[in-house]
Structure to design on (607 residues):
């Protein structure tokens, strides 16, 4: 009998379940897999043999076509959590045709030898086409029959009679069950119904009626086993606040649950919102006092000792008043100097006011926790000498206030830079050329010379390596001053060359006021803090805040108030000493106090 060679179509197309699987092909004996591997071929003709087993590719298919010429069974392995399994008998399409041809030949046999040969052919047919264990259509006897196995591998025909159901009771094997047997299994009575739907029976059963649902309602239980309808109004969400039960929440209530402001957008930075210490509204330059006065008018003050709400019921949104007597507002502690901002026009309750108090500590903690990443501010904050030990990287729409005598934010050297913060004195400054210099001046012109600094101590040049940002400061009076004040010249540059042998540091250009710096009696260099930069983007506003001094309130920088303080001046000519009465902070001299000359010996500072 001639058997043709054919391509293996199984595993010829991609199957993600078989990625990188191992497929081994075995010969077939009595319809079952033997232990003998079949011979696989690389081509439809010829003797070039293909590998057995085959390793499927990354798409779960043969890497190239595989051919065979005898019945075989494939075993698939190497699938990780999927166990090894096998296919059915794989035949060549031409093989079946050849078998059927030999059946016709068998019908024409004449001799005993022919009969024996025909029997061999039929045995081959059974081996190839009908493996052991096959189920035939003829096994189904009679109409409405199934094959049912009560024990493994022994399917027997079973007639499903009318009014019976296939199942298995608590005893015995699976069988066609009568209606009575099924009712016993389901635990129901013959003829049982459930058509009583009155309210009493529904409640008794612990159910609800469809009539409990009106338009746009849900049933919610605030107590156990007590569902009640909740009507969902327009623009509401079902939820539960920190107090109370399930309810239809308004947009404002949902924002409160989510702790977000109206109109809030997603932020790439950490939100800075110190509890009861800031206003979510940004303050602007033209915002004034809650009594309707501008910043240079009569201050609006508040006595918090009795815990009362500010009396400014006609105040405009974002206007402020200043706490002059400590106390509380809605259980929030208030100190002298704290600010209260109206969150809406015509505020009447404590919820209509935001407390703005010193949040320096919280700000420093937030900056240090961010470790140089973005921190988002939205609203108005009060800072007093905030000095976080990390880079400051701010984003958002916000106003930062400071009060008289305090800066808002500053940075000092951290421990890793402390050794470099001692100013290094220069012996001189001039124009020169450092090694490898090719830089532009401030006008973009190529330079052959830049400002250099000769260090008084040669070794100090090592404190200013190439690329370092450096500040230079001197005792030379700034040209814009009239010569009687102490406005000294300073500047900053980047180091582009260093001569460590001679102690010369070269700037990246001829710096502004070069001549004045070179002629100064004292010149110093100090490295800037590159590891602790401050990045502030558009949207930031820095303003002074009203300050309580003595019993008076005034706005920082203008500090307009009601009383004048007097001080005496001694000396003559361009050198004079201003003496301030005891109890008046000396920092008023440099904090925007207006000084007017009353006579040759008395000046008046107006707060």
């Amino acid at each position: 009998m001639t058997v043709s060679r054919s391509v293996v179509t199984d595993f010829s197309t991609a199957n993600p379940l078989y990625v990188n699987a191992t497929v081994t092909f075995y010969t077939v004996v009595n319809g079952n897999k033997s232990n003998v591997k079949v011979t696989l071929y690389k081509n439809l003709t010829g003797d070039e043999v293909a590998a057995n087993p085959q390793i499927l590719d990354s798409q779960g298919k043969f890497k190239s076509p595989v051919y065979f010429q005898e019945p075989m069974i494939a075993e698939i392995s190497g699938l990780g959590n999927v166990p090894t399994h096998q296919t059915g008998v794989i035949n060549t399409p031409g093989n079946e045709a050849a078998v059927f041809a030999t059946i016709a030949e068998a019908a024409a046999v004449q001799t005993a030898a022919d009969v024996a040969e025909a029997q061999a052919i039929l045995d081959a047919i059974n081996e190839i086409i009908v493996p052991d264990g096959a189920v035939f259509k003829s096994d189904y006897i009679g109409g409405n029959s199934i094959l049912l196995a009560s024990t493994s591998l022994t399917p027997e025909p079973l007639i499903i009679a009318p009014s019976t159901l296939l199942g298995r009771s608590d005893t015995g094997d699976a069988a066609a069950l009568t209606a009575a047997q099924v009712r016993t299994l389901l635990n129901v009575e013959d003829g049982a119904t459930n058509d009583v739907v009155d309210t009493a029976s529904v409640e008794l059963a612990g159910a609800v009626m469809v009539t409990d649902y009106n338009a746009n309602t849900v049933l919610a239980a605030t107590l156990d086993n007590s569902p009640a309808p909740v009507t969902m109004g327009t623009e509401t969400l079902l939820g539960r606040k920190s107090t109370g039960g399930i309810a239809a929440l308004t947009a404002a209530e949902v924002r409160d649950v989510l702790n977000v402001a109206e109109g809030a957008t997603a932020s790439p930075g950490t939100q800075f919102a110190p509890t009861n210490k800031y206003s979510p509204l940004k303050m602007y330059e033209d915002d004034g006092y809650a009594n309707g006065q501008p910043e240079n008018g009569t201050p609006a003050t508040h006595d918090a000792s009795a815990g009362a709400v500010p009396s400014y019921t006609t105040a405009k949104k974002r206007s402020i008043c200043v706490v002059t007597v400590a106390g509380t507002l809605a259980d929030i502690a208030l100190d002298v100097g704290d600010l209260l901002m109206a969150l809406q026009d015509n505020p009447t309750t404590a919820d209509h006011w935001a407390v703005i108090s010193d949040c320096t500590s919280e700000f420093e903690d937030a900056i240090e926790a961010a470790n140089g990443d973005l921190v988002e501010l939205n609203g108005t904050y009060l800072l007093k000498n905030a000095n976080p030990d990390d880079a400051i990287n701010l984003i958002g729409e916000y106003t930062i206030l400071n009060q008289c005598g305090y800066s808002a934010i500053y940075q000092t050297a951290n421990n890793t830079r402390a050794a470099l913060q001692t100013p290094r004195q220069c012996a001189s400054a001039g124009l020169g050329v450092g090694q490898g210099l090719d830089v532009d001046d401030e006008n973009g012109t190529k330079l052959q010379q830049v400002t250099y600094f000769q260090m008084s101590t040669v070794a100090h040049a090592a404190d200013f390596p190439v690329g370092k940002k450096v500040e230079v400061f001197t005792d030379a009076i700034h040209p814009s001053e009239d010569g009687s004040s102490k406005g000294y010249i300073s500047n900053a540059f980047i180091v582009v060359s260093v001569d460590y042998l001679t102690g010369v540091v070269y700037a990246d250009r001829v710096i502004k006021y070069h001549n004045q710096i070179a002629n100064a009696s004292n010149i110093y260099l100090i490295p800037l803090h590159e590891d602790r930069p401050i990045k502030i983007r558009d949207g930031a506003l820095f303003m002074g805040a009203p300050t309580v001094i003595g019993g008076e309130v005034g706005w920082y920088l203008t500090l307009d108030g009601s009383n004048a303080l007097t001080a005496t001046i001694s000396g003559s000519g361009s050198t004079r000493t201003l003496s301030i009465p005891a109890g008046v902070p000396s920092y008023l001299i440099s904090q925007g106090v207006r000084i007017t000359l009353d006579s040759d010996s008395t000046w008046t500072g107006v707060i």
The CA atoms of residues 278 and 356 lie 4 Å apart.
